[in-house]
TrEMBL record:
<feature type="transmembrane region" description="Helical">
    <location>
        <begin position="92"/>
        <end position="112"/>
    </location>
</feature>
<feature type="transmembrane region" description="Helical">
    <location>
        <begin position="237"/>
        <end position="254"/>
    </location>
</feature>
<dbReference type="InterPro" id="IPR004695">
    <property type="entry name" value="SLAC1/Mae1/Ssu1/TehA"/>
</dbReference>
<feature type="transmembrane region" description="Helical">
    <location>
        <begin position="118"/>
        <end position="139"/>
    </location>
</feature>
<feature type="transmembrane region" description="Helical">
    <location>
        <begin position="266"/>
        <end position="286"/>
    </location>
</feature>
<keyword id="KW-0812">Transmembrane</keyword>
<protein>
    <submittedName>
        <fullName>SLAC1 anion channel family protein</fullName>
    </submittedName>
</protein>
<feature type="transmembrane region" description="Helical">
    <location>
        <begin position="292"/>
        <end position="314"/>
    </location>
</feature>
<dbReference type="InterPro" id="IPR052951">
    <property type="entry name" value="Tellurite_res_ion_channel"/>
</dbReference>
<dbReference type="InterPro" id="IPR038665">
    <property type="entry name" value="Voltage-dep_anion_channel_sf"/>
</dbReference>
<feature type="transmembrane region" description="Helical">
    <location>
        <begin position="20"/>
        <end position="39"/>
    </location>
</feature>
<feature type="transmembrane region" description="Helical">
    <location>
        <begin position="151"/>
        <end position="171"/>
    </location>
</feature>
<feature type="transmembrane region" description="Helical">
    <location>
        <begin position="212"/>
        <end position="231"/>
    </location>
</feature>
<keyword id="KW-0472">Membrane</keyword>
<feature type="transmembrane region" description="Helical">
    <location>
        <begin position="177"/>
        <end position="200"/>
    </location>
</feature>
<keyword id="KW-1133">Transmembrane helix</keyword>
<dbReference type="Pfam" id="PF03595">
    <property type="entry name" value="SLAC1"/>
</dbReference>
Length: 330
């Protein structure tokens, strides 16, 4: 008998819907967040560009496609979905589902409050559930170790800070304050855990390297929510948070030479929402009287985020056509 070639036994598994990552909803976060940032640019500079509307509707279409595709995964491969939801590393990305809905709800506020509410309410309820379940996994799962921590752990927590952006319009005030309190307290509590992982546990795996950009998002979204809840951009808290945003942008830029070498993965969309959130905060602060420096940095963040959305959108479309999103992780 002639033995089978060794290569045959090591062939990669065929693409399967079971391998579709839940992090695909980060695409919606990036598109929706960039839509909001363009609306803030319109407000800050007195423009009337249709970019917010176009991106908001595009984000809604992508959300519908992602819900259909991931829903099919849950229906056909429930074990694979449950394994992803309870995985020490992947569980945090489950929160991209409700956060994407609430980000789009914010983008739709200037377009249609009805559409915004239809996105926000299920997103907020799901955010509450996901936050509880993911944090339970972190606490109760013996598999979770320091090496499993990564910046995307902020998503389930900081997603609560996104809720007040549209929630102030759609829900009683105490609901938005609930989400803001949970997001702010647990972001501050989780920050030293994530920094400890980055400082002492070695370099991030390449698939997770883009999540370093997520460090920009919490202070940016927190400042936006603080002002939506009645604060002012002149408040010491808002000014402090904006300072942290600028520092995190500088730190991200300092790592750009390394990050440019990272191969493409869906996780690359992690760059887009943080840049959009930073742009929104800085441009909103400029509109309220902050110095031109905030405008310059905000415009730079918006330009970088928009270019990334365009580039990653094209690369993701190519990945979809090639079946790369349905390939097992190496």
């Amino acid at each position: 008998m002639t033995p089978e070639p060794a290569a045959a036994s090591s062939a990669p598994p065929a693409p399967s819907l079971a391998h579709l990552p839940v992090g695909v909803f980060a695409v919606v976060m990036g598109i929706g967040g960039t839509a909001v940032a363009w609306f803030r640019a319109d407000e800050a500079f007195g423009l009337a560009l249709p970019v917010n509307d176009a991106l908001a509707w595009l984000g809604l279409a992508v959300l519908a496609a992602a819900v259909a595709a991931y829903g099919a995964k849950v229906a056909r491969h429930p074990r694979a979905a449950v394994a992803e939801w309870t995985h020490p590393v992947k569980a945090a990305f489950v929160a991209t589902i409700p956060v994407s809905m609430m980000v789009l709800a914010t983008a739709f506020l200037p377009i249609s409050e009805t559409a915004s509410a239809a996105l926000w309410w299920p997103g907020a309820v799901l955010q509450f559930v996901v936050t509880v379940l993911v944090m339970r996994t972190w606490i109760a799962d013996a598999r979770v170790q320091a090496i499993h921590v990564h910046p995307a752990w902020f998503i389930p927590v900081v997603g609560n800070l996104v809720a007040p952006l549209a929630g102030v319009t759609h829900a009683p005030g105490e609901v938005s304050w609930y989400f803001f309190g949970v997001g702010a307290v647990f972001w501050v509590g989780l920050l030293p855990v994530v920094l400890s992982r980055l400082f002492v546990e070695g370099v991030m795996p390449w698939r997770l390297a883009p999540t370093l950009a997520i460090l920009v998002a919490p202070p940016a979204v927190a400042s936006l929510s603080w002002v939506r809840l009645g604060g002012s951009w002149e408040d010491p808290l808002a000014m402090m948070l904006l300072g942290v945003v600028i520092f995190q942008l500088a730190l991200l830029a300092a790592q750009s030479a390394y990050l440019r070498k990272v191969p493409f993965a869906v996780s690359a969309w992690a760059y887009t929402f943080p840049l959009a959130a930073a742009a929104s905060a800085l441009l909103a602060a400029y509109e309220s009287g902050a110095t031109a420096f905030a405008a310059w940095v905000g415009v730079a963040a918006l330009a970088a985020g928009t270019l990334l959305v365009l580039g990653l959108g094209w690369r993701t479309a190519v990945a979809v056509s090639r079946g790369e999103l349905l390939a097992a992780e190496g």
